[in-house]
Each structure stands twice: as C-alpha cells, then as structure tokens.
Amino acid sequence: MNRRLTQVRQISQIERNLCNLFNQCESAVQRFLNRRLMQIGQISQIKRNLCNQ
Fold it and tell me: Which domain of life, per UniProt (predicted)?
C-alpha cells in the first residue's frame, strides 16, 4: 500500500511538471508570435504609408 501511494504521488508530480512545462512553452510561443505579429503589423503600416503618398 505504501509503495502504491508513492507511485501515485510520483505520477501526480510528473503530471504537474508536464503541465508547467506546457504552460512555459505556450507562453514562450505566444511571446514569439506576438513579436512576429508586431513586426508584420509594422511592415504593413510602412507599406500603407508608402503607397498612400
């Protein structure tokens, strides 16, 4: 019984670790995409400014 409880705790810890890793990756990807979208938006704005003159 004691060993089983230890295994359940270890599995719970692994699940928490995986969840944390996923959240870190997700926020890193989100930051990267936000930067790319800002750059794309800036390029579009420059193009609009040049073409509207």
Answer: Bacteria
